[in-house]
Amino acid sequence: MEPKQQIAQLKAELSSPKRVLITTHQGPDGDAMGSSLAFYQFLKKMGHEVTVVTPNDYPEFLNWLPHNDVVVNYMRQKVLAEDLIANAEYIFHLDYNQLRRSADMTHSLADATAVRVMIDHHPEPNLTVKYRFSETTASSTCELLLTMMQEWDNDQIDSDIATCIYTGIMTDTGCFSFPNATARSFTAASALLSYGIDRTMIYDRIYDNFSAQRMRLMGYCLNEKMEVFPEYRTALISLNLEEQHRYGFVAGDSEGFVNLPLSIKGIRFTAFFLEKEDKVKISFRSKGNFSTNDFARKHFKGGGHLNASGGETKISLDAAVNQFRELLPAYQNTLNAL
After folding, report:
1. Are 23 and 109 in contact (CB under 8 A)?
2. What is the pLDDT of residue 319?
3. Which of 79, 115, 217, 323 could lock 247 by a disulfide, CB 3.0 to 4.6 Å apart?
């Protein structure tokens, strides 16, 4: 079914008030929270009973988003979250296309009887849903969602909704500097400006709103923890639990650290390893045609986009970093051909 047909059918089903749940992936970023809170407001205007549930915490620099106070955190409010999941009539899966990315919510979501809708821009979707809006050519879920809302009921979009959408597009395109920022992205940004958003304020609250400790942590990572492998055009940064504690680490403090080594002349592939209590989370970034998605899927149980992906492992931080180092020779020709 074509997207416009799906929107028309979904709109008809939601013509009367329903219990709607909006979910997103673990470790929500600007696109996840921007799309979730934008769609929350959109559906609330239509008279639905709407709740946003996240699997866990998200960065403090996103807490200013309009209606952020309505978000239910599964990690902190498990009983309430599971009740909402079980009683939802419609569940929207925003900015993720595999159920495992909902972390501890996975089993509850799998058991839910609600009608499911996926809105996402990642490759290789693997969710069983009634309605699937999946476009890998979209820069972000927010960009895709804006197109949907304009088709659904453009009159419902206001400044608060536009602010959330712009946040998602801006963060997922690296302020419109990444290759995924297309003419469609700039057209969307132009349309959002017409709703009276303050793009300078949005940028300031996302990128100029960190603690002094976070700045010191970034300096420490660059000076003490960055490893550069010029023969592989690769760099990595790792951060263990003791180092996080030393700098008063909070969720979101390492946002963007994986991109920093890409500023080095000749570097085309970067990795950032973050130790957690029960696993190591890994972020990958690249320039050109080197697929971080393929690399993450093959070696670190992850995935994502061509130039931006993530993964994780249960082995120790040192073992994970060593595994990464040992993999590089196999990719030397590919990375040097870029």
Report:
1. yes
2. 98
3. 217
